[in-house]
Amino acid sequence: MIKTKKFVPVRDILAYVESTGIVYSVPYSNEKGYVDNICIPTESNPTALFWQSGEVVVAHNVIATNYPRLLFAKIVHDVFGYIDDGEVLIGDNLFLGELCVFGDSGYGYVWDHTKCKYLPFPHLGKVIIGDNVTIHNCVTIDRGALCDTVIGDGTKIGSHVHIGHNAQIGKNCLIVTKATIGGSAKIGDNVFVGRGADVGNCIVEDGAIIGKMSNVLDKTYVDKDEVWAGNPAVFLRMRRKSDDL
Q: Is the dihedral of CA 16, 22, 23, 28 positive or negative?
């Protein structure tokens, strides 16, 4: 469980930012939406948004800074301290092998140009594991940073698999031994990921197949029922009924 939980009023965050000498403002509303924002829960509002200076946003109580990720990380560390435990929610009928680690902080860092070193990016999310999931030996699942890491109902995960922070894996997927699912990957239902495959920060739709030892690069889009393989992975063909035997 996360050891320290408390809500921080927006006014306190703004006071902290003002004391550091960083400029903040509340932008006007328009229809363009917001770009490159980061959220933190508050007592008075659902979120306070940090965004890149010069971008136009739709929000209130917004802090403008040239380094939104860095400022967010600094505030969370100052207010919450170092969060070293994550919450893990497990559904019914979990089969769990040995030597698994769930809820550890993900591999996320932000460069602090003022001190010339990396600062750990806060991981405030959970690991959520659905019903009837099978997880074999030596599997690691990192908790989310600003959202949760989710394993859908009925999914089967082989030994020595790593699942990064914020990954979303759907229902009834097969993730074979030594596969790696990168942070923020979005994988649909009934997806097959072959042995030793590396799936980056990408989208894999329902029913897709990722061949063994394949390298699916970040920002790749794998459509429904497509078969991809290779390094880097490319589209090969559509899924066949014989693939399910």
A: negative
pLDDT score recorded for residue 206: 97
Q: What is the pLDDT of residue 24?
A: 42
Q: Distance (Å, rounded) from C-alpha 29 to C-alpha 170?
A: 35
Residue 62 pLDDT = 54
User: For the chain, which residues score pLDDT lower than 70?
Assistant: 1-66, 68, 78-85, 245
User: What domains does the chain contain, in order, with CATH numbers?
Assistant: 10-80 (no CATH), 88-240 (2.160.10.10)
Annotation says 165 is catalytic: yes
Sign of the alpha-carbon dihedral angle for 185, 189, 191, 193:
positive
Q: What is the pTM of this model?
A: 0.76
Tell me what pLDDT residue 19 has.
58
Q: Which of 123, 136, 162, 165 is catalytic?
A: 165
